[in-house]
Request: fold
Amino acid sequence: MRQSWLVGVARHSIAIAVAVMFLAPFGFVLLTAFMTSEQALTSDWWPSSWHPENFVTIFTQVPMLRYLGNTLMYSVLATLFMLLSSVPAAYALAKLRWRGSNATFVVVICMMMLPPQVVTVPLYLMWADVGLTGTLWPLILPMLAGDAFSIFLLRQFLLTIPADYLDAARIDGCGEWQVLLRVVLPMARPGIAATAIFQFFFTWNDYYGPLLYTSESQEHWTLSLALSQFKHLHHVEWNLVMAATILVMAPVIIVFFFAQKAFVQGVTLTGVKG
Reply:
């Protein structure tokens, strides 16, 4: 029995090593969250005494609920706006024949490769002229014009949908919007879910955008900016930072576990088509 257990460990040694590499940072964050502020600055890795009240203290020192609301508003609205604009754009690039579609797709790829810092100054000046700096709207409203990475991802998924289904719907009298809403969207749900999850994760963890537009307007901060609130003039309360980090990561981890079902459905659907 012992020999077979050792053989199993040896066979999966690489997977075990990789799992330890990925889980070690989470273990460090979790254990530090239960330490005192003084012990968090030492080399100890196990709490000498457990302090779960750290998870309550972060709510008394920082308005975490307000920041949570701002983050949810930013992530949910940006994801919804991205889907409303990117799905029709991806459908037009993947399934419709029109002059300039290839050139437009090249432009989308170029936009995807464009570093955001290149257009930061002109975009900031534009939003300042309309009086929206100091809020999260300069990060949400551009999603109504689509997102290059999301359009590319959705287009690649829509290419896997057989054209026969679309042609059959057109023969039955459906217009392009009806084909998109009644045929393409139900078949593309796994791809749409994956794209939405990517966008939600990006906006939830976004630090650069909220720092650029809301750094001087604290009531509009997101959770990523809130973590800096535990940094004082002469020291950082690492135990509170780690406790807040766990609370910030929790919704993302929950969404990820729910997203696994969508990814499995996508693999199954692609296999059926093949």
